[in-house]
From TrEMBL:
Active site: E46
Family: Belongs to the PhzF family.
Organism: Idiomarina aquatica
Record-given protein name: Isomerase
Keywords annotated in UniProt: Isomerase
UniProt GO MF annotations: isomerase activity
SUPFAM superfamilies, sorted: Diaminopimelate epimerase-like
GO cellular component, one term: cytoplasm
Pfam families attached to this UniProt entry: PhzC-PhzF
InterPro entries documented for this protein: Phenazine_PhzF-like (IPR003719)
Length: 259
């Protein structure tokens, strides 16, 4: 069996920016163990698998360690592949996923993803987070990640974190955030349980960050920056219980998987 493989830099204007994801279109679903082995072999933070459906595409995401419920940058990469390589001639594609229906539009300004919003709630600081940071933060919230709110952008940028304690948490990972200097908010995202020490640009994290910062800043449109080594910018628009994420994607590699 031969499968097409696309490696795409998401939330990027050119290669070597943003967050790389693999996208593998399938004729039908393969065994989950095989999908996980492909993701492990790709050795990227996410591999997206697509199967054509009557309404659009079924979409699943795998890290090298496990399947996840939602991944923003790999959804952006998957939509880029659908629009650019799979002969899809409409301006809106609908994906069915473990997080419900996800909609991606294309326009001259790039791709816009329409995702469900997650509104994190305050929680007591887990001991694992205090150990990982080396200090106790002022504010911790819980969505599907633990969200640690720091005082300023410099704290987020310079943070040195011990990833080992974070494996004890029952959430997906930890997002560290603060209000930005040039951007509305900044963040860094850590997912050691998924074998992703620090994710370069995380769309799904902004489904939690955007509602939080929209409330804090009293504005519905936000410019967010993820402060990883590769870095990436996401424009976020909060509309009720949905979040729109805007970004671009570019091809890095097109190849063939031999099974």
């Amino acid at each position: 069996m031969k499968l097409k493989l696309f490696q795409v830099d998401a939330f990027a204007e050119r290669v070597f920016e943003g967050n790389p994801a693999a996208v593998v279109p399938l004729p039908q679903w393969l065994d989950d163990d095989l999908l996980l082995r492909i993701a492990e072999e790709n050795n990227l933070s996410e591999t997206a698998f697509l199967v054509k459906s009557a309404a659009g595409y079924e979409l699943r995401w795998f890290t090298p360690a496990a399947e996840v419920d939602l991944c923003g940058h790999a959804t952006l990469a998957a939509a880029h592949v659908v629009f650019s390589h799979l002969g899809f001639d409409q301006d809106e594609v609908r994906f069915s996923s473990r997080s419900g229906e996800l909609i991606v539009h294309r326009s001259e300004g790039g791709l816009m993803m329409d995702f469900p919003a997650t509104r994190p709630t305050p929680v007591a600081t887990p001991t694992a987070i205090t150990e990982a940071l080396g200090f106790e933060p002022n504010h911790v919230l819980l969505g599907y990640d633990h969200i640690v709110v720091l005082d300023n952008e410099q704290q987020v940028q310079s943070l040195v974190i011990d990833l080992t304690p974070l494996r004890q948490l029952d959430s997906r990972g930890v997002v560290v955030t603060a209000a930005g200097d040039q951007y509305d908010c900044v963040s860094r995202c850590f997912y050691p349980k998924l074998n992703v020490p620090e994710d370069p640009v995380t769309g799904s994290a902004h489904c939690q960050l955007a509602p939080y910062w929209a409330e804090q800043l009293q504005k519905s449109e936000l410019n967010a920056r993820q402060l990883s080594a590769r870095g990436g910018t996401i424009r976020c628009v909060v509309k009720g219980e949905r979040v729109q994420l805007y970004g671009r994607a570019v091809d890095y590699l097109i190849g063939t998987i031999n099974l």
